[in-house]
Amino acid sequence: MPPRKCAGCNKINESSKMIRIMKVHNTREILINPDSRHFGRSSYLCYNKDCAQYAIKKKRIQKTLKTEIPAHIIEKIQTLTDN
Ligand SMILES: [Zn+2]
Questions:
Q1: pTM of the model
Q2: What domains lie within the chain, and their CATH numbers?
Q3: What are phi and psi of 70, to 5 degrees?
Q4: 6, 15, 44, 52: which could form a disulfide with 81 (CB 3.0–4.6 Å)?
């Protein structure tokens, strides 16, 4: 898997070790860790609460995906990084 940059801390990590937030190309639906059937513009985060909070606060994911992020997706990101 290619390395990707975290939207929070900007560190490079393997994409398989990160949360992927995708805007699906044709439906514009926002998915978390989509399976390989889907493709579209993606943003990545470490499994780290600080990265998630920072990226959400600074709207970094929104800027990368060029869309608003639904509240249930933000809640899911927070759940995945709440450790
Ligand atoms: Zn990070």
A1: 0.93
A2: 3-80 (3.30.1230.10)
A3: -60, 150
A4: 52
